[in-house]
Amino acid sequence: MMNDCKARAAAAGVVVAVLLFFCAAASAAPVVRKDNRLFAMGAQLAVVYDMEAGTFDIARTNGEVVARGARAEVVVAAGGKEITLSPRGAAKLGWFFEDIEDAHGKGASVTVTASGSGSEPDILHTFRVYDNQPFILMSVAAQNVSEKSIGARRLSPMVVDGGGEAGVFLGLDPADVVALENGHRLEFDFWVRRARASEGADSNWSIALYDEKSGRALVAGFLSQQAAFGSVSAGSGGFEPALDARTGRRGLGLFHARSTCSPARRVGSYSIFESDPFFIMGAWDAPLGALDVFAAASAVENGVSSVRRPTPSFWDTWYSKYTTGITEQIILDNLDAAADKLAPFGLTAFHIDGGWEKSRGDWEPNEKFPGGMKALADAIRARGLTPSIWIAPFSAAADSPVCREHPDWFLDMDVIGSAIIPSNERALDISNPEALEWLSGVISRVVNEWGFGMIKVDFTYYSLLGRNYAAKGRTRAEIFREAFKTMRAAAGPDVYILAVGVPVGIHAGLVDGMRTGLDTAPRIGEERGYAAQGFKPAYASMIRRQFLNNILWHNDPDAIYTGSEETAKRWGETQLPKESLVAWASAAALSGQILEIADPPADMSPEALALARAVLPVYSKGARPLDLFTKDYPEILSLRLDGPDSPRHIIGIFNWGANVDNGATTTAETRLVHLPFSALGLSPNAQCHIFDFWSGSYVGSPKFGHAVRLAPHSVQVAAVVEALDRPQFIATNRHITMGATDVRSVSWDGGALELRGSQDSVAGFDYALTFHAPEPYEFAGAEVAGAPASAELSNEDKVITVIFTPAESGNTNWILRFKKTAANAPDAHKKKK
Question: What pTM, to 2 d.p., does this model score?
Answer without folding.
Answer: 0.94
